[in-house]
Design brief:
The protein is mostly beta strands and 393 residues long. The protein contains 2 helices and 24 strands.
């Protein structure tokens, strides 16, 4: 259907008017309304594929000879036969062509048709005998594929008038499919040299040229996508299969991936274990590592409060954090690790980071209250003896 595309130039792209139905209560909906909504989104996808991705083979679709293993263990090749592997192709009109199973093609025919999702069986037509046309001399043939829709699942319909004919049927489904053709001429737009081969020379993207594009690409290349060039003798011997020289490959980012790298791989605490008295004054705990942030979660367990987080003065960004830490009076005495939850939700741990000291003990005597406290030395210093003092009641 010859229409005007959004590029303001005549093309042979099948498209519809850029409108879709608006549904409202008590509306009478017809089949045209439902079809218009489907066509709207299908045409948008076609336009997106055609103008942003171009056309060509994305993956698969290799054309190979058909071999047969004989009883003596030798391998022979069948005359006139090639097989097309499954693959995914973008057509020049923006259609997705999915060859979901391997198909065998006879080069003496015009090709074959397939429906995506059907069993991969090349069943012969019981009503027609295949027409074989062998070339009189060595010939160059072009195996190509194009998008094709097929109607499936017929159902009976009610008669439109007062007639008694209730045997009428209508197809109730459209199925995506494809047609593999054996052409005698190369499809349009496949004889143009590629601007570069990314497998042999890394591409250089000239943004200036890309920004000065003269206009939108049209659909003058026709519906076919070339898969391979096949040279065959008159007796059916396949001399050569060229899957590369004129095959147009479309860019795929499916193989472009990497493992994310965590910002922090290790943490540690200076002068550990840092001693904190239960119910006493807060202390400063310095955490070191790489990629540390103030919005990470720093935890020493139950009843230990981290009230402030700030980068250590004079340190490189992300390498050192000062935590203001206080242990509540209900905190259990002992050694605590530090657990840090980063932005990417990974968890790192530094063992023996904090030592919580027991709270002061009140001892009641005859008329006096003795207050006993365990005096801990400074970090990494020898332990001193226990002192006690009495307070008159």
């Amino acid at each position: 259907m010859k229409t005007n595309s959004s590029c303001c130039a005549e093309t042979y792209c099948e498209t519809t008017i850029a409108e879709l139905p608006r549904f409202f209560p008590r509306q009478v909906i017809t089949s045209d309304d439902l079809a218009l909504g489907q066509d709207y989104f299908r045409d948008r996808m076609r336009r997106h594929n055609r103008l942003l991705h171009g056309f060509g083979v994305v993956c698969g679709g290799l054309v190979c000879p058909v071999s047969r293993k004989e009883t003596d263990g030798t391998a022979t090749f069948l005359p006139w036969q090639v097989k097309v592997a499954n693959g995914y192709v973008l057509g020049p009109y923006g259609d997705e062509i999915l060859i979901d199973c391997e198909r065998t093609v006879d080069l003496r025919t015009r090709g074959l048709s397939g429906i995506t999702g059907e069993p991969c069986i090349d069943a012969p037509d019981p009503w027609c005998t295949p027409v074989y046309v062998a070339p009189a001399q060595q010939a160059t043939l072009y195996v190509a594929v194009k998008y094709k829709q097929s109607m499936t699942r017929p159902i009976r319909v009610q008669p439109a008038g007062c007639g008694c004919d209730d045997a009428a049927c209508e197809y109730s489904r459209w199925r995506d499919g494809y047609e593999i053709g054996v052409l005698t001429e190369m499809p349009a737009c496949h004889d143009q040299p590629a601007p570069f081969n990314p497998c042999t020379k890394p591409p250089f993207l000239n943004l200036t040229e890309m920004c000065q594009s003269s206009g939108c690409p049209d659909c003058a290349c026709g519906p076919w996508v070339l898969l391979a060039i096949v040279t065959v003798d008159p007796d059916g011997t396949i001399k050569n299969i060229d899957n590369c020289s004129h095959r147009r490959m479309a860019v795929s980012l499916s193989h472009l991936w990497w493992n994310c790298t965590p910002g922090t791989t290790r943490i540690d605490v200076k002068s550990k274990p840092v001693r904190v008295p239960a119910g006493g004054a807060p202390v400063t705990v310095t955490v070191t590592g790489t990629g540390l942030t103030t919005d990470a979660i720093y935890s020493f367990g139950e009843n230990v409060v981290v009230s402030q987080i700030a980068e250590t003065t004079g340190s490189h960004p992300g390498e050192s954090m000062d935590l203001t830490v206080a242990a509540l009076a209900t905190a259990k005495a002992g050694i605590r690790p530090l657990r840090v939850v980063l932005r990417d939700c990974s968890i790192l741990e530094a063992g023996d980071a904090l030592k919580i000291l027991p709270p002061k003990k009140m001892i009641t005597g005859h008329g006096t209250i003795a207050m006993e406290q365990t005096v801990e030395p400074a970090n990494n210093q020898p332990r001193k003896a226990t002192k006690s003092k009495a307070i008159s009641k």
